[in-house]
Amino acid sequence: MTKHQDGSGEFSSKVYLEMELLRFTTAGSVDDGKSTLIGRLLYDSKSIFEDQLDAVKKASLKKGSEHINLALLTDGLRAEREQGITIDVAYRYFATPRRKFIIADTPGHIQYTRNMVTGASTANAAIILIDARNGVTEQTHRHAYIASLLEIPHIIVCINKMDLQDYKGEVFNRIKTDFKSFSDLIFPVKDVRFIPISALHGDNVVDPSANMDWYQEGTLLQALENIPISNDYNLRDGRFPVQIIIRPESDEFHDYRGYAGRIAGGVFHKGDRVFVLPSRILSVITSINTFNNTQEEAFAPMSVTLTLADDIDISRGDMIVPENNVPRESTTIEVMLCWMNQLPLQVNGKYAVKHTTRDVRCVVREVKYILNINTLEKQEEEKTVKLNDIACVVLQTTKPLFYDPYSVNRITGSLILIDESTNETMGAGMIL
Amino acid sequence: MYQLRHLQELESEAIFVIREVAAQFERPSLLFSGGKDSIVLVHLAQKAFWPARIPFPLVHIDTGHNFEETLQFRDALVKKFHARLIVGSVQESIDMGRVVEEQGYNASRNVLQTVTLLDTIEKYKFDAAIGGGRRDEEKARAKERFFSHRDEFGQWDPKNQRPELWNIFNGKKRMGEHFRIFPISNWTEMDIWQYIHHEKVDLPSIYYTHERKVFNRDGVWLAWAPFMKLKEKEKVEIRKVRCRTVGDITCTGLSLSTANSLEDIIREIAATRVTERGGRYDDQRSDAAMEDRKKEGYF
Q1: Does the structure show a pLDDT above 50 at A4?
Q2: Is B196 contained in some domain?
């Protein structure tokens, strides 16, 4: 696990090529110790370089801290360092010989929902931080709900600042019970685990704690290294949104016409009978190409190029799917919408929609309810969707979308709304 | 088992992003510096469009202060991929009075490149410029989007970026605005080297050990060139060195190294205790040097 002691063994090319990728996000309120935890993970896994550490030491001294403030490792912008706050999602990287990790580090207070939803959208796992002194709070409910809304497959609840509760097992057990009593309602089948830690002192982050012998279920890093991720992509339902058409028009590949894209679900084989949407024409996959190479099969999330037996008019935004497993198709789309802009959602307003590789326009037909994200109550009389709100909304699109519910496929089940005059991304939708 | 390994997943992500550029923009370009990251980008672009050619030109912003080996490599690569090359010249910007050459010991054309880059983007009406920036390189870069919006002055506003969710990229813009696209955002320095090794990507010889005339300035080894001013106690000597990153010759720190294979380099990177840009003189100017340059429109 040590990166620097001996470069020869642990990151040999053989080991490196076998490593898996885990993307995770961190959720916590201000002062729950999120930045300290990330700093601790990077520091104890030897992912911090000397010049980075020197910079943090200098900054800590300048601010009058007694010891190195690991939280400072994660501040990227001048304004963040000056104000001691995090403004925007930042991405961090570290690796062990088993896995490479991408952390979406989201700020604790400013634009909380918008940033957490952004960070969570690509995550396989979420760390939810709870301050052991405060226990489960309304904000914990909010974090857990967003993690479940975004269908993050694995949740790790870190009960932090155990040092301030004398490392007592009953504190941990009480918080665990409290968390479960409401989380069972929102994600009963999800993979949820609990770890007592002290990010400040390093207990159970990378190294096992010497202060909590009542807990023997492994450190946070062990959890991150061992979470099973092989089923995180939908491998059942074949979905291939066409991204671009490849036409070399060269002597060697005179008649070549390939459909390039990233597989959004399932496994495709050479010889598969497929349906092309929206034309509904049947054809057969004649080859699956990657650079200079053809293969018998390909699966999500590979970027490949398909060729078909028949000359069909196919363009960007079309979808190639197995003949016997087609997605839903509709112009009426119901979504859970997270609103991300200062300007409120316009009911009956028109927006541009991006869904897989498909661009359409839509009208907002109806706001069914806005969710009170702390109590999870549906507010049906409330119709004004504002920044950081989560609402259930019905969209009417100009052309049909080919989609799956977000709970079935995070790629074919997600879309964004764009303001057509400012071009800004206004909202993120998870299709119901 | 149907599961990608991490480098395969990063490759697939990068190819997806590069194809999105071809789909969403009318006049894209690929910023090519001759460094390893942009060489990997060209390799990925070739994969993204195979068996067709890369459908956009390579743009090199030439400071005039290059490592000669980089230019030779660039020309050979352009020929090999049948690519179109556009060169934006910092010397020309100076001659035209668009920028003023820095004076003094630490004079570098690194900052001046921004003007030449933005002029070149405007001249050829590029609406997207693909770059090899990585989020692990530098703290301001950790905040970058894959699709990074630039206003009509080429400026980046890090505090007001569009949220970027899932793999849905919003490249919509007004006339005169453009996007910087970073397909290898999620790659680390080690990922790049392991990928180069695995894919057998060719690199300029300066990445491998060689003897060169160098001098030491404040602990950083710099390559000597006739136009560089030495301070009193600095002396030119011959050392065995290699580049860890390649930029303008005036600000690229060299490593004392005898690594002459990719295996050696990977071992060296795994054992190193300083970041890649720790040797970049341009980043040491201040704590927010990169952020400030990026806001102005730097790479």
Answers
A1: no
A2: no
